[in-house]
Amino acid sequence: MEQAALAQPRPPEARAYAFKFHGQYLDFLVLLLKNLFLTVATFGLYHAWARTARRQYLWQNTEVDGHRIEYTGRAEDLFRAYVKIAVVYFAFIGVSYLLQTQMPLAFAIFKLVFAIAMFFVFPWAVYRARNYILTNTRWRGIRMSMERDTTPYVTAHVKGWLLTLITLGLYNPWRMNQMQKVLTENTRIGNWNFGYDGKDEDVVRIYFKGLFLTLITLGVYYFWFKAELDRYYAEHTTIGGTRGRLNVKGGDYFELFLMNLLLVPITLGLAIPFVALMKIRLQIDRLSYFGHLDFDSLLQSQAQAAPAVSDGIAELFDVGAGV
Amino acid sequence: MSVPASNQTTLTGDYVDGRSARSRRVRVDVFSGEVRLSDPGTGESIAVWPRNRIEVRSFAENVTKIYPSEGADEELSLACSPADVLGAEYRRRPLVHQAALYLGGLVVAFMVLHFSMPAISKAIAHRVPIELERKLATGYEDFFAKDRCESALLNDRIRGILDRLHLGASPKYAYRVVVMNKRLDNAFALPGGLIVVGRTLLEKAETADEVAGVLAHEIQHVENRHITAGIIRASFLTAIWTLAIGDYSGVLVVDPTVAYQIMSLKFSRDDEAEADREALRMLDAAKIPRAGYANFFRRLSSQDPLRGIPEIISTHPGHEERIRMIEAGSDEGTLPVMDAAEWKSVRSLCEKEA
């Protein structure tokens, strides 16, 4: 009997897989100064290299369970993407100008078609930009990625915003949860997909409670609302037998806000890297995953990398990829 | 980062093969021609990487990664400095030196930008076709025209002042003046030759010569392409600033664009001074007394609640300085634009209609 018990494999031990950010203020300040100097000195041409260097710095200073993550994107690809986007952008401006001055009716139709197209292009660019960043993100030699098909995300975005508009904003928390679900479940590392089991009704409760208390506290409660929502999203995210944990409180966000509000103007902007690092550190150091990861079963997957152009388009629209 | 030839170095690291996330402890022998990875217990060979193909990346002072080739997912993590692998070849400038270098470079770059921008933007502005300038301002013209003062007599008198000014110069633009029926004690020009004058400015002007001075000043902003150059400058600075700082804007609650706005104020002051100088030349050529223009600033000076504002953060030169410059010339042989009594009878017509 004892021998039989000994022969049985022991259940894998659950533990915390912690995130840690190692970036230092002086390092980051030097990087920012270098980026700023070279961007100004090259009349903006250095921007792609600056953006890539910043990502490399942030990624390689992030440790997950003792292993640093890496950013492998190349500035040259991003630069080529910017050139392509600039050509299309100026051609677009030229066509708009011509239509506006020569064919007013065609211009009106053009504007309408453009507005409708943007409704679809916008989420497409966000999704593809996220895919570009993730396929260039590597941990323990394994690359992250997004599922290739952008349809679920674009559909959720279009449906969510349409319903939010029709219901004069009431649908917004449902939209938020659906977007979080589709974005998380389409994110992968190697052959593993992330999971999300957050419920609409929970987000709706957090949202309306947050909205009400933010209004009656003249905005102060917003930081506690954001912290509760961020915790909820993290705690309902799973990967390979682990579940997320985010140990942030509203007071942490409020403190960061006050620091930002006071330090940046007083130091004439010199505190920008400091405040940026504080925010990143708060988001990373407080995050962990708990459970068990079987690294032997986490295998490289041949995900197709998105072209850098999507990252450039997302930047043109001034939207982040949510990474 | 290329790896130089050196004697054998033995290190311990963590290796992943790029196919699964499983990490294993390995012994690393760095030879002059290759890097060998082997099992520290059994000595079994795991990988042999030619040194001329490997890539070494520094993650921190004590975190180094080696890859068999650029872009490979297979990697070796070492808890040591890149100097332990690369030897004397690895050199890193101290952070403080780097900070001083880039800060110094930044100051020089901003100085170059600061001194070259007015000339560059003006050179570009002077190449913009007048027709294009006018088209750019078309929307604004319609916007201001909605509040136009409809007094035919007042508009006729303003047109008269403009005609008299034209006697002193042959302007490139066809100027139009819109008197706005609003409480506006100011005047401004748009590219293409539209000048907007506020009703209150006219009501407060004691003579038509004051208005002539103001119109001459605005005409010179247009003639010298100050507004178009300002648009080009602002667009350029905004683009550079957005590219340089835009990535960080998401973490900030304060818009850090104040720095370049202060920088651009100096350009505005230079433009104002040039517009003053050229306006005086125009008044002199049209034989309009300078006294009216001086009186305009004297009145402004006595009413200005921001009189004590330091010049560095002001868009215009100080009133006293401008009055001194105007009064440096003589009014001999000049003739007022309009009889003072006639001006007083027409200057408030706009308000009566409103």
Notes on the protein architecture:
- Chain A has 323 residues and is α+β, with helices and mostly antiparallel strands.
- Chain A has helices at residues 2-7, 25-41, 47-60, 75-102, 104-135, 151-166, 172-185, 200-216, 222-235, 250-266, 272-285, 309-316, and strands at residues 15-21, 62-64, 67-71, 137-139, 142-146, 187-189, 192-193, 195-196, 237-239, 242-246, 287-291.
- The longest helix of chain A is centred in the middle third of the chain and has 32 residues, at 104-135.
- Chain A starts with a helix and ends in a 7-residue tail after the last helix.
- The relative contact order of chain A is 0.14.
- Chain B has 354 residues and is α+β, with helices and mostly antiparallel strands.
- In chain B, 48% of the residues lie in helices and 16% in strands.
- In chain B, the strands form 2 sheets. Chain B has a 7-stranded antiparallel sheet with strand order 4-3-2-1-7-6-5. In chain B, strands 8-10-9 form a 3-stranded mixed sheet, with helices on both faces.
- In chain B, a hairpin with a 3-residue loop joins strand 9 (187-190) and strand 10 (194-198).
- The longest helix of chain B is centred in the first third of the chain and has 31 residues, at 95-125.
- Chain B is rod-shaped.
- Chain B starts with 8 loop residues before the first strand and ends with a helix.
- In chain B, 32% of the residues are buried.
- Mean pLDDT of chain B is 80; it is low at 1-5, 249-256 and 308-314.
- At the A-B interface, helix 2, helix 3, strand 3, helix 10 and helix 11 of A face strand 5, helix 2 and helix 8 of B.
